[in-house]
Amino acid sequence: MSRVLIVAEHLSGRLNRNATAKCVSAARALSPEEVAVAVLAAEPGPIAEEAARIEGVDRVLTVSRPENAHPLGQVLAPQIVELAAGYHYVFGPATTFGKDLMPCVAALLGVPQVSDLMAVLGPRRFKRPIYAGNAILTVEVPEGIPVVATVRIASWPAAGTRVESAPIEAREVAVELPAHTRFVELRQGKSDRPDLQSATRVVSGGRALGSAENFQIIYRLADKLGAAVGASRAAVDAGYAPNDLQVGQTGKIIAPELYIAVGISGAIQHLTGIKDAGTIVAINKDPEAPIFEIADIGLVGDLFKVLPELEAALG
Amino acid sequence: MKILVAYKRVVDYNVRIQVKPDGSGVVTEGVKLSANPFDEIALEEALRLRERGLASEVVVATIAPADAAAHLRNGLAMGANRAIHVVADRSLEPLAAARVLLELVRREQPGIVLLGKQAIDDDCNQTGQMLAALWGRPQATFASKVEVEGGWARVTREVDAGLEVLEVELPCVITTDLRLNEPRFIKLPEIMKAKTKPLQTLALADLGLELGPELKVLHYEPPSKRQKGIMVKDAAELVAALRARGLL
Ligand SMILES: Cc1cc2nc3c(=O)[nH]c(=O)nc-3n(C[C@H](O)[C@H](O)[C@H](O)COP(=O)(O)OP(=O)(O)OC[C@H]3O[C@@H](n4cnc5c(N)ncnc54)[C@H](O)[C@@H]3O)c2cc1C
C-alpha cells in the first residue's frame, strides 16, 4: 500500500485548484491508501480548505511560516522533504511552480525525478514525453526510493469537488530556511478572461497578426467565445502578446475542448502544447502550413478577412 | 568572477524525431547535432556579463562522449575562455549531471552557474534546480533578464502568472528562458582562435562520484496520431462545423 503527497500550488491566497485537482487524479491512478495535499504558505487557512474539498484527498497538511509567502523553490524544498517522510510518492504540477520546486525536492532526497508524468502504467512505471512530445518514454523508478514527479496537467482530468472536507492538520517543520533569495515582485497581466491553463476554449494568435494592435482581434474573438487567449512564441517575442500567453514546448501545455489557431504555422514546438486539445481549428492563408496536418477543421484564408466574418457569423 | 556554463549537445531542434521501430530509442545516426538552444542563450548571457565587466572568465562545460570536443570548440568560438569536457560514454540523467556539475563547481568556484532551463532532447527541466539544491545555493530559473550588482543577481523570471523578479545572493544558479537574449553568430576568425583555447578533458570515472539512482528506460514510442481533419471554405461553414460538433 502506498501514500502520495501532493504539493499544492497557490497564488494570492487562492489554491490553483485546476493543477492540484489534476495531480490528485494522477495520484488516484496509483490506487493508493492515502492522498495528502501539502499547503505551504504564510496563511494556509483558506487554501487548505479548498484543497480539503477536492474529491480523493484524504488529508491536508499545512505549514504556516512567513518565509512561505512566496513560492521559492529552495525555501519550500527542505520543508517538503520533512513532510515527505512516510510518503512513497511526492507529486507536484508541471507548471512553472512545480518545475522550479520539485527537482530541488528530488535532489535533497537523492532520487531522480519523473518530469511531465502523463500516464501511470504500474506502481513505479510511467509514461512521459520527450523531444517536444515527438516521442513517449516509458520509465521505471527503481525500488526502495520515493517517486518524485511533476504531473503533466494536460494529461489528466481534474478531480471533482465534494461537500465534506478532508481533515486539515497543521504541521511544524523544524528546518532552517535559507535567506539567500529575496522576492521583489510579481508583474501580472490583469485580465477578466478565463485562465489559459484551465479554459475549455482557447483562441491563439501567431506572427501573422503583425502588431499588438492587430492582436486585439484575437481578444475580440476570444471574448465572443468566452475563450482564453494564447499566442505562439513568435507573437510573444515580437511583443504582440505577453509571455504568460505562450503555448508550446517552452510555454503552456494546454488541453481545451476547442483550440483555434490563427496565423500560426504549426511548428513542432507549438504543436506539443496543444496535442491534447479536443478540437483544433486552424485559420491560415498558406494551404501547406503544417498546422493543417493536425487540425480537425482547417480554413485557408486571410485572417484579416476571416475573423471579422467569423465574429459576424457568431452573432 | 568566473561563470560556469553548462553546454549540452542535443539533436538539432529542426530535426523531425523518428522513434526506432523496435522502440529502443530515437534515430540519432546521421542526424544533425547542435548546442541545446537554451544553453546557447546561457553562454551568450555569460559572455555579455563578461563584456560588461561583471565577469572575468567564462568556462563552458559538457558531459558527453569523446566526439563532443567539436561541440565545445563551438562554445569557445562563441567566446568562452576555456572548456571542460567530462567524457562519459552514455548520457547522464539530471541528478547525475547535477552531481558532476557540483564537482566542477567545487573545483572552479564560479560566482554564477548558467544553464538552459531544459534540454530539448529529454525536456526534463531539472538539472539547474538539482545543482542549486545540492550546492545549497539559490536558484533563479526561467530567466528573461539578469542584472548583477553588489554580490547579488536580480533576475526576472517567466512564470505562468507573468513575470516574477527575484534577487539571489551569489554564488547562485540561473537557468535561462528563450527571451533572455539572442545568441551571436560564430565568426570564422573566432573558429580559428578557438582551436588554441584550453580544453580540459576529465574522465567521468576519474571524478570518483556516486551518481545516484537512475530511472530505468523501458520503451520509446511515437505519440498517438490525431485523426485526419476536414477543410471548410469560409467562416459560415466553420461555424456550422463547430455547431455540428456541439462546440458552440
Ligand atoms: C527551443 C525552442 C523552443 C520553442 N518553443 C516554442 C513554444 O513554446 N511555442 C511556440 O509557439 N513556439 C516555440 N518555438 C518557436 C517555433 O519553432 C516557431 O518559430 C514559432 O512557433 C512560430 O510562430 P508562428 O507560427 O506564429 O510564426 P510563423 O512560423 O512565422 O507562422 C506564421 C503563419 O501565419 C500565416 N499567415 C501569415 N499571414 C497570414 C494572414 N494574413 N492570414 C492567415 N495566415 C497568415 C503564415 O502562412 C504562417 O503559417 C520554439 C523554438 C525553439 C527553437
Molecular structure report:
- The complex is a heterodimer of chains A (315) and B (248).
- By secondary structure, chain A is α/β, with parallel strands linked by helices.
- Chain A is built from 9 helices and 18 strands.
- Chain A has helices spanning 17-28, 45-52, 73-83, 96-109, 212-225, 233-237, 268-271, 291-294, 303-314; strands at 3-7, 10-11, 14-15, 34-41, 59-64, 89-93, 113-117, 119-122, 125-130, 135-140, 147-151, 168-170, 181-188, 201-205, 228-231, 258-262, 279-284, 297-300.
- In chain A, α2 (45-52) links the parallel β4 (34-41) and β5 (59-64).
- The N and C termini of chain A lie far apart (55 Å).
- The mean pLDDT of chain A is 97.
- Chain B is α/β, with parallel strands linked by helices and 248 residues long.
- Chain B has one domain (2-222): HUPs (Rossmann fold), CATH 3.40.50.
- In chain B, the strands form 2 sheets. A 9-stranded mixed β-sheet of chain B has the order 9-8-7-10-6-1-4-5-11, with helices on both faces.
- In chain B, β8 (152-159) and β9 (162-169) form a beta hairpin.
- The radius of gyration of chain B is 21 Å and the shape is globular.
- Chain B starts with a strand and ends with a helix.
- At the A-B interface, α3, α4, β7, β9 and β10 of A face α3, α4, β7, β8 and β9 of B.
- β18 of chain A pairs parallel with β13 (230-232) of chain B, so a sheet runs across the interface.
- Flavin-adenine dinucleotide (FAD) sits between chains A (206-208, 232-235, 246-251, 263-265, 267, 269-270, 273, 284-286, 289, 302-304) and B (13, 37, 120, 178).
